[in-house]
Every structure is written in C-alpha cells, then in structure tokens.
Specification:
Layout (H helix, E strand, L loop, with lengths): L5 E2 L10 H8 L12 H14 L3 E5 L2 H12 L4 E6 L3 H4 L4 H6 L2 E5 L24 E8 L12 H13 L3 E6 L2 H8 L3 H5 L4 E5 L10 E5 L1 H13 L8 H13 L4 H16 L4 E3 L8 E6 L6 H10 L2 E2 L1 E4 L2 E5 L6 H19 L1
Parallel strand pairs: 1-11, 3-4, 3-5, 5-6, 6-7
Antiparallel strand pairs: 2-8, 7-8, 9-10, 10-13, 12-13
Length: about 350
C-alpha cells in the first residue's frame, strides 16, 4: 500500500481534526447577514478579545480582510506603503487598484523586514499632481521572507512614525499567531500599534476557511459595509466559524511544535552540500532554501522529493519552500529531512 505523502507545500493544506469536525457538525447557526448567527458572533468576540481590539468581523479569506482594510483606510487616488515582497502586493491581483482605486509604493525589505529609516522620505507632498500617502501596511510573519518575524522594536518605530505623520497602519497578520508564540510577545502587544489587524484561521491554526479583520468599532462597521459590496456576506456562516473557534481555543499553543519541526528541516538543508537557507535563520514554520544551479532547478529537486513521497513547493527557479503544520508530526518531518539530504546527495553526483 502506498504511504500518504508528507505534504510540506503549505500550512493551508491541513485537514480539520476529528474534534474540529465534531464542533463544526454541532455548530449553532443563524443568518450572519442579518447578524443572528451565534457562532459567528462568538468567533468575532473572541478574536477581538484575543487581539485586544474593540471589534472584529469574520470574512471568507485573508485577501478580503486585507483589501477591505485598504479600502476603509484610503480613498481613490490615495497610496499605501508596503514591503515589495508582501502578500498584499504580490498575491492579491492588485485588488487595491482594481477595486478601490488605490496605488502601492513598495520598499525592499531584508527578507520582508522593513526599518523606519527606509520610509521617512516616502510621504508625498500635499500637491494636486501627486497621489496622497495615507497608509502603511506590514506583514507579520512574512511569507516570502520565510516566516520572518518583524522585530518588535522595528514595528513600534514604524507605527509611531506613521502615526506622527497622520498615516493609518494595517497589519497583515495571517500568521501573527506564529509570531506571538515564537516570541512570547502577546497578541495585544503586537496589535496595539495598528488601526486594523487581519488574522487567518486556515493556515497554522488548521481551520478549513476564514479570516477576521479587527479594529475600532467604527472602522469595523465600515468594513461590514465593504464586505457586502465585495460579496463576502454569508448566511449560516456558523458552520465554518465553528472550525475557526475550535482552532483559536485549541491550536494556538501547539504552533511551537511546527516551529520546532521547521528547525529539523532547516538543519537538513544546512547539512546538504549545494543547498542554502534563504534566510539562514528560521524564525517560525516556513523554510526557504536555494538549490545551486549545478544541481538543476528547484522544480527538478521538488520532483525528486515527490518520488520519495515528500511534497514541497518551488517558488522560483532555484528556490523551494517547506511549511510545517499540524498534519505533519516529528517522525514525518525527520523523514522529510532525510529525503532532502538524500536528494541533494544524488544531485551532486
């Protein structure tokens, strides 16, 4: 019998646990469009409480929460500042331009990490010929930065500078729970520096669907209106909210296991000639490494791993991403590490 593949392509591939499925099956539901779904209300209240914010709203995806945040912070003809590798800029079809008439100004970070000195001269003058700088967006942890955690002091400095200059602040915190667990810095301490925070339930937390946008009540009221415009109003949404609720109540602390497993994969890369971590330090649950061109392409390396029943993702001609999550245990990760070393050795021959 063929063994089940060890799937390290993303932390979005997780399956609901048996207990989560039971919670979903037993969910109390209503109609969230008219604000009568008790499971959605519980989820929104718990999310706001955990982040230390006034209010939160449940949405189908992190793309929607991010794009609605941009929309409520900016007007057509406005501009926001973001890191050049961030999700909002690279993986959301420039929806800020398509849907809200907003432009982006990108800044190259160091594996996704920005410093305030890079931003000080980027605010446009008040001139009718120019777009208006209105918003700064950060991503924590940073997906394309291999799960890098934004240093807390850098976040504080950037947000204080933005506030002093009249700019709004939005955090794409799709993996903010990973940052909190890895650093020991509580979620409200991260969130307090931003006007809005987006968090995702379907990545490391292991829920099937959904994200939330948190912030002041007045902004979340605006976000609810925008959610309707974007087609995000859902009726008996308690069915999926129940999975997210279960994840918040049971799957946050265990993220530390994913971080430990990622270190095993990182060590396997370090021990393999021709492979190099990008970056060298692995902060959370994402490992990105470079394959030397003399060994072939990333796609070829991924195919060789697949033949050994380990699934990975080529993200560039020479780059491969591995992501640990609740559906891969320590034994499977050790096996994946052995496969990395084995494939690297074969391609060196």
């Amino acid at each position: 019998m063929t063994s089940t593949p060890i799937d390290l392509r993303s932390d979005t591939v997780t399956q609901p646990t048996t207990s989560m499925r039971q919670a979903i099956a037993n969910a109390a539901v209503g109609d969230d469009v008219i604000e009568t779904d008790p499971s959605v209300e519980r989820l929104q209240d718990l999310c706001a409480e955990m982040l230390g914010m006034e209010s939160a709203i449940f949405m189908p995806s992190g793309t929607m929460t991010n794009q609605i945040a941009i929309r409520i912070h900016c007007q057509p003809g406005d501009e926001f500042i973001c890191e050049s590798g961030c999700h909002i800029y690279n993986y959301e079809q420039a929806a800020f331009a398509q849907l809200s008439g907003v432009s982006a100004r990108t800044v190259d970070g160091e594996f996704g990490v920005l410093h305030v000195d890079q931003l000080r001269d980027l605010i446009r003058p008040d001139n009718e010929h120019l777009v208006r700088t209105r918003l700064v967006c950060l991503e924590n942890t940073h997906n394309r930065g291999a799960g890098r955690i934004q240093p807390y002091e850098s976040v504080l400095e950037i947000c204080e500078w933005a506030k002093e200059n009249g700019l709004r602040r939005h955090l794409d915190g799709a993996r903010l729970f990973n940052a909190a667990v890895a650093t020991g810095i509580d979620l409200p301490d991260w969130a307090q520096h931003f006007d809005t925070v987006s968090v995702c339930f379907s990545k490391g937390l292991g829920a099937p669907v959904g994200s939330a946008l948190a912030g002041p009540k007045e902004l979340i009221k605006q976000a609810r209106r925008a959610r309707k415009l974007f087609g995000g109003g859902m009726r008996q949404a308690g069915i999926i909210a129940a999975g997210a609720l279960y994840a918040l109540e049971h799957h946050v602390d265990r993220l530390a296991e994913d971080h430990a497993n990622a270190q095993v994969l990182a060590d396997a890369v370090r021990q393999s000639e021709g492979l190099s971590l990008q970056p060298e330090i692995v902060d959370t649950n994402i490992v990105i490494f470079r394959v030397d061109p003399s060994m072939g392409s990333a796609s070829q390396f991924v195919e060789s791993m697949r033949e050994e029943r380990v699934l990975a993702m080529a993200t560039a001609p020479q780059l491969i991403r591995l992501v640990t999550h609740l559906d891969v245990n320590a034994e499977q990760v050790a096996r994946a590490g052995d496969v990395i070393k084995q494939v690297a050795a074969l391609l060196q021959e």
